[in-house]
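Researcher: Watch the backbone:
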Amino acid sequence: MPAITDKFGMASAKTAYANATTVKVSRQVGESVLMCHDLSKFPRETNVYFVTYKKVADPTDPKKVNIINQTSWKGKVNPDNNTIVELTLAPGYTDIGNFEGDFVEPIPTSYWCNDLVEGILVSHNQDGSIKDGSIKFNSLDLSAEYIEQNTSINFNDPKFLKAGKWVLRDKDVAKTSTNRPSDSTGWLTVTPLDPNTVPGVNAHGYVMQQYVDTESRIYKRIIKSGDTPNPIEYKDWLRVPTEYPSIENAKEESVQIGWGMILKLTRIGNTVSAYIDQINEVPGGVFSPSEKIPKKYRPINNTNMLITGINSGRYAGNAMYKFAKDGSVTGYSALPGRQEWYGSITWLTDQPWEKS
C-alpha cells in the first residue's frame, strides 16, 4: 500500500470510474477508519483524495437537494473490506464525524491539487524545467579492467547495454560475433548517456556502445535500453570520421548503378558532386538496379538527377535517376537504344566519411 505522506493520488481504479459510495458504519470524531459500502472502483495503488457529505431536502423547495457537512480528506483504500484507513483531514477543515448513509466521493479538491504541485516541485522548477540534480546516473568507472571475451558474443545481448568494458582479442571470436560493427578484433565500451548529450529527450535508459578495432576504426551507436517503457531499439552502427576529404585531397570514385552505367562521385566535406559522362544503353521504362550508392555518399533527402542523351551529335531525349536516402537507385527512361549520356548534380550528405 502507498504511504499516507505520498503526494500523488489517482481518482479511481485503472480500469473503472469510481462512483460515489456511502458510509456503512458511522464514524466518531477522531477515528481514522471509514467503512463504506463499495470501494471496488476506488484506487488501491495510490492514496485517494475524496470528500464526505450529506444530502438533505431543501426546506423551501422539495424538488431541490442541498449538500451539507462537506469535508475534504485523503486516505488509503482497502477494497477487500471496503474501508478507507489512515484518514487525513485536509487543512482548513474540521472533523465532524460521519453518519451511516453519508456520501463518499473521489473528486478534485484543493488538497489533491496542493499535494500534486508539491510533489512536482520536488524535481521541477516553477517554469516546468527540471531542477539541477533531479536526474542521477551512475558514473562509469573508467579505471575498470577490460573483460576478455574468449567466445563469440552478440553485441545486442542485454549485458552489453550496461556500463562496462570488454575486449575481443581473438580474430575468430570477432568475426563470428553477431551484430558486430567490424570483423577486426577490438575493444567495446558501453557508457550511460548524460541527459545533455541527447537534447530534447529523457536520456534515462539510453546507452552508447563504442567499438574501436585494431585497424584504428571507431564505431558508435545509441541504444534505448530495457530501462525505458518502450522495447529496446537498436540504431545502426556509425563509423566515426577521422578525416573528411577537402579540396586538396578529394578523390573521384566510380560507382556502378546498373546496366553498365557509372556514376562518378566526389565528396568535399558534406557536399557530394555526381556526374555521368559515357556512352551506354539504359533500359526503357522504370528500372531498379540492385546496386546502391555507398553510404558515405548518400543524400540527406531523395534526390533526382536528369541526364541528357545525345545521338550522332543531336539531342535525343532525357532519362532520370532517383537516388534515395538509403542508397537505392531508380531509373526512368523513354529513350531506348545506345546514347551518349551527360548529366550532373550536387547534394548534401550527413553520413560519416570512410576511406575507400
Observations:
- The longest strand covers residues 61-78.
- The chain is about 5% helix and 40% strand.
